[in-house]
């Protein structure tokens, strides 16, 4: 919290401190330089170093001010959670009723835009725990080396004791649960086998290590917690699943350990500020590409660090139909400010790791 001058070894001068709150404007820097010039022990290099440090603090202060809570600023505001919940309930009901039930891709894209509909651990509503790890929902997540289809989504949920890696497979709502004889349909059996393939992949210790590295689940995140994988299949409609009585009675016995089957009718909106991202490994380094931002998203100090990690941010903001043009312009202008703040925070954390 201070700018400190420390004398060279053997010098009798004491340390000299200036509190950072006194260096927030350009005129503060000039005032302190005039003051320091009067000190007999101040050298020219000291004044140059102070000017550089003071200029950095001025820029940091301006950035901090511009990243204050949006509610305190006269700017286009984010949509409230209550408003988004009501809107999403209507959108989801209409989408489920009007969309071609054989068009699985349409449902994939809808969930990418509204990840609050995705289930969390135990087939419950996503977000019912402490929230997603890192605040990201992964679409088409990669399981390196697996030879079968990759999951449609990955939700990394957490509580005080556990990190849950929830791998989600969505199948077209029109697919049947059972044959006329009351036995599981071929498409259902194939989908359940997909969950088992993922489960088998995680049984290999090296695969688990690769997964933790790829999705940034390090020692800090796992301290005092365990990583558990859950596998969820979103499949068909409730009406069709209960149509054949002999099948309905045994439907819940189809899933294995840590596997959960649910119909599209069970999905309920849970508005969150989660960001949908995709791993981009097309270059020499793996990067996270932003796919969508919710209309509730607020880019402030708390969000700046994770948001600065992403590519494709302007494109994702521009493509959200629930954001007004004024809100889009505001968020895009704010990216540059947030990036400067995030870079300063990272440098500070590297300098002061404890």
Folded structure, characterized:
The protein is an alpha/beta fold and 354 residues long. Helix content is 40%, strand content 16%. The protein is built from twelve helices and ten strands. It has helices at residues 26-37, 44-66, 81-98, 104-113, 186-202, 205-214, 219-222, 238-241, 245-248, 301-307, 313-318, 325-351; strands at 2-5, 16-19, 132-139, 153-158, 162-170, 226-234, 259-262, 275-280, 287-292, 310-311. Strands 7-6-5-4-3-8-9-10 form an eight-stranded mixed sheet. A two-stranded antiparallel ribbon has the order 1-2. α10 (301-307) links the parallel β9 and β10 (310-311). The mean pLDDT is 85.
Question: Low-confidence parts lasting 5 or more residues at pLDDT below 50?
Answer: none
Secondary-structure element string: EEHHHHEEEHHHEHHEEEHEHH
Strand arrangement across the biggest beta sheet? 7-6-5-4-3-8-9-10
Rg measurement, Å: 26 Å
Tell me the distance between the termini: 15 Å
Number of helix segments?
12
DSSP strand tally? 10
Overall mean confidence score, pLDDT: 85
What percent strand? 15-25%
Q: What is the 3D form?
A: elongated
Could you give a short account of the major beta sheet?
Answer: 8 strands, mixed
Structural class, by secondary structure, is alpha/beta
**What helical percentage do the residues reach?**
40-55%
